[in-house]
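job 3f2a | input accepted
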Amino acid sequence: MKKLFLLVVLWSIMGCLKEVELQYDGDEQAKIVLHGTISPQKGVLLNISKSIPPQEKLDFDQVFLNNALAVLFQDGIPVDTLVNVNNSGDFELSQNISIVEGKEYRLVVSAFGFDAASVQLRIPDSLDGLSMSYQPDGSDKGIIQVSFEPTQNELFYAEVIGYDSLNLVRPIFLQESSNTIDCPASWFAHKYFFHEDCLHKNNPKIVALFNKETIQWEPRAIVLLHKIKLLISKIDPEYETIIDFSDNEEVGFSEPVVIESNVEGGYGYVLPINPSEAIVTF
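job 3f2a | predicted structure (282 res):
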């Protein structure tokens, strides 16, 4: 009887399956996608690719627009045509051009078969009074404290880089100290976005637990860091709509997602930054 009941259940489930072919009648066209940064320290670092409309098959080999034309304007005057540096859509300045704090820049990108895409950017002021200190807290652990002068800005971008005794870049592991900083984002891939309103207004600072031990992947080994560098920059508060502060990995793309962009005529975002630098050596 149990076997017969199981067969009936399986037959009922299988009988309810129906294959449905979905039809998409949209006329969405592929657009230029821009991602990158512009800064006085590193110039223009731009990746140029294209979007894939729902009706087209995804082919990663054809995503990057390595033959695109990217022109940089400063205060309305063309100053450089970017050059492609690899087969992955990466572009840089073709000459040694100074990116100036406070200046207005515009990137205009065109490619055969696509509408032109552009983005208007202003280089933010640098951060004053930046300092960083290290206090040991155990054999291979310590406290990193970063301080800077109060500002009227509301949004910041930070990047943390670790180096070993041979000055090779190594992974770095930081953990927020919740009693000092309470920001709605976390350290991720060495990059960090945070609001000023989560810091002390009169004495803004960041305190993080730091582990000097890091991983060497090939060959697998544990090494000690010798130095860390912090790059921190103001960001125009309008970029808060572009950067996701939810830090919720469970949401994913199970529901329709609005993709924020500051690119006119295309997708993606280009971030103007002007990082100040602080270094601590152990």
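job 3f2a | Residues 1-11, 176-182, 184-189, 245-253 have pLDDT under 50 and may be disordered.
job 3f2a | closed
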